[in-house]
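User: Predict the full complex structure for these chains.
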Amino acid sequence: MMRRDTIHAWLLLLPALVLLVAFTHWPAVATVIDSLYATPQGSRPPPFVGLDNYDGLIADPVFWQALRNNAVYAVVTIPISVVLALVMALAVNHALPGRAALRMAYFLPTMLPMIAVANIWLFFYTPDYGLFDRIVGLFGGGRHNWLGDPATALPAMMLVAVWKEAGFFMIFYLAALQTMPTDLKEAAALEGSSWWNYFRRVTLPLLMPTSLFVLVNAVINAFRVIDHVVVMTRGGPDNATTLLLFYIYETGFRFWDTGSAAAATVVLLAILGALAAFQFGVLGRRIHYR
Amino acid sequence: MMVVGRRPWGLWLETAGAWLLGIMWLLPLLYALWAAFHPAFYATRFDLRAPLTFANFKTAWQAAPFARYLLNTTLLVSLILVAQFVLCTLAAFAFARLVFPGRDLVFALVLLQLMIMPDVLLVENYRILAQLHLVDTIVAIALPYLGSAFGIFLLRQTFLTVPQPLDDAARLEGCSLLGRLWRVYVPLARPTYIAYGLVAVSYHWNNFLWPLVITNSVTTRPLTVGLAVFASTDQGIDWSIITAATLMTSAPLLIAFLLFQRQFVQSFMRAGIR
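Assistant: Here is the predicted structure of the two-chain assembly.
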């Protein structure tokens, strides 16, 4: 006979587990299976095609561009928003004049829907009228179509992402800074340690677990959030702002090519899995937890 | 607060830098406010004598069924919040205080969802909901998010901090398993529920891609999707009206945030401490 605890535990877990498995674990497995079959047409069961869908992806230059764009997007936005978040947190952790207002200014973009943010920045980037062109104009720059030029479209999207995310990550650094022991600071002050030295030797190492948490979230968001792409550029111009999930969205819901979309999703899952393993395996081991 | 090795001019420099960054961060919002509260003629002309107006909000409100969208979002967020609270509480309690074979494995499987969120699996989830004949319903928007690994994890951590003697005392008094959960654990975890609730509300109020995919009619669309549809249909480039609509859809959450700023910030902090 099973112990009573075991029966109770499974009964308590059942509702949540059923939903988790139905909409996360099963779809993840089904994606892998579907990626080996052709896109269903009509009511006939789709034929098994092996790795054909993957061959199709490899042959599609837009897929490669989406991968490249997403890599650039992640490599640029993640460090910038994490460092900015730390700077913001350090700033509002002191008794600066107007600290509460500053904290609000940094955090406000986090509370806005990305789609609202996209609309506002769309206006911001409008050639001639937009504030961006006005500011550049003050410094002698000319008219520029920021989102219409393949060279500036992706950087423009990255700026939006940094603006939206930095304040969100700041909160976690701020939380960590506020629980930091003050006796260390007093000891360092007695020894005449410089601010930079103290920051590098004490603050930064103590912030490592927070940094790992922030980093994990930043990586997930770099691959998950494409609302601004849908609204601002639809992946253009000339696929310059197509990110991986946007490619999947277009393939799956505009061209209804679910076989290829499944294969691309498998690639995305593999990337997320590899990054997770790296973050927890390599970085996680080097971090001192208090 | 004491500051190590800091000279006075350093503080001034830091203040100036922090405020420069703060103004940069506020600029897009101030710009949107300016455009929304002035006639279209002044949208890009900054003149302090420009007349203030609510006309843009009125036009936007009448041009699309925003009242319906607001109702849809409210229903969606309430549904998700109630379901997540109940399901995550039950599961978190099992993980925190019951001993059963396979617990660690199942917990690890649950945590997988922190990395692989439902948003990424939209093609497959759409197919599943189509098979269930649920496409274009509010329930379909909510379903993939109801079992939340984040909520389970957060509540489990909180339940683990509840002193075991309290639990034992309730048990001696003849309290059942669910009775103990309800009378001992849930009241003690109140701050976590508030924190989790605020994070969940702002996440799902602002969620866009999955609702965009799974809905296609006025009666199911949440505000975010409604706003995107409104802004992309031929409004021309009347930025005043689009920014008014944009601010309108974000307003409930923004106003709540400004009123309960401390609580919001502390909630996000609490949700992040692991």
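Chain A touches chain B through 108 residues (CB under 8 Å).
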